[in-house]
Protein: RNA helicase
Amino acid sequence: MEKAASFLFAGTIFNKKKYADEIARFKEKKETENEVDYLSSFERVNPGSEEVTVSTKKRKRKQAASEAVEGFNVFKSSKKALVISEENKTDEGEDNLSKEKKKINLKLEADSILRKQYNIHVSGNKVASPLKSFADLSSVYGCESYLLHNFAKLGFKEPTPIQRQAIPVLLSGRECFACAPTGSGKTLAFVSPMLMKLKHASTEGVRAVILCPTRELAAQTTRECKKLAEGNKFYIKLLTKKLIRSAHLTKLRCDILISTPLRLSSAIKKRKLDLSRVEYLVLDESDKLFELGLIKQIDSVVKACSNPSIIRSLFSATLPDSVEELARTIMHDAVRVIIGRKNTASESVNQKLVFAGTEEGKLLALRQSFQERLNPPVLIFVQSKERAKELYEELKFDNIRVGVIHSDLSETQVKDYFYPY
Ligand SMILES: Nc1ncnc2c1ncn2[C@@H]1O[C@H](COP(=O)(O)OP(=O)(O)OP(=O)(O)O)[C@@H](O)[C@H]1O
Structure:
């Protein structure tokens, strides 16, 4: 284009001296035209706002007049400087933006390497970074020293994979489905964020609820909680029949209440317990909770925990689709954390499947296993309490010291069984 223009005007000489007046007039006209142009385009982007446009017009003219005092060149150069500094600003902004982007990408990469290393699988938006070590709890989340001290006292040097991911998820205020094999440290994964967030002991009401499928598990979780909370004056309570009968229940001062759904829902039904202040609700061993057909009771607990900012979480060794689907109806934007593969057993546990056609065949296979490789102590799980009693009678005659627990036993009998001394 430039080339074409120079070709067209080649040889033409324009006498600027001769046409000085016209040039001056032409310049003046152009300036006014530009102004009109500029203003009309402003009007175009603000259709229907006449009043605003008029006052803006006035302001623009006023501005132009005042700037004109400084001289046309000053005005032009200051305009240019403004543009340059705007450009610099944009460059700087873009630079910062790309630096920020790079930083985020590096962080995401580090997170995914750590997750791969520990077989952690997550799904959900903007999932918090996994913990590199327990030290992250104080450096990133301001954890008080008593908790880290308790971990050390209990001999916990490194977080387990489920703890690495579920703790930051809960601390970041997200709801969570966590699925990790038996014995992988799930209790600490949901108790520590509670202790960290609740900070100081309750002055009134219940602040966190943990639901467990059986009384024994509820009692075990209570003991774990107390161990982890040592050094802080939290009120950690197991909901027992005695506590339900007590007159204090309506004004229970409790930071963490642990119960079975059945017991808790009956306390709610009797209008003895107010759960409207609960900030955390955990369904532990959720697969068992839903399996045991406790949906109605769980539902009544979920309803009673009516605090709109409550954080709910599900911890389980397996996460059947039916349970997840059901739970999703009450969870908000939940993160799913799975250690290893969903619904698989721990890789550190040897497993063997033995086919036995009949009950007698099972007993035979069991006896054979005892002779070949099963060294007591051994735990045997069966389907019903009747079957447990039967197997107990059968094994009693095999020169094995055998015991049995089932729901027909009293709490004291079960306790004596587990803690005889
Ligand atoms: N970071 C850790 N390092 C070492 N041991 C730990 C750690 N966290 C928990 N433990 C211990 O591991 C054992 C199993 O923990 P826990 O009972 O919480 O597992 P779980 O996943 O809840 O098992 P289950 O599915 O049977 O309930 C406990 O004795 C606990 O004290």
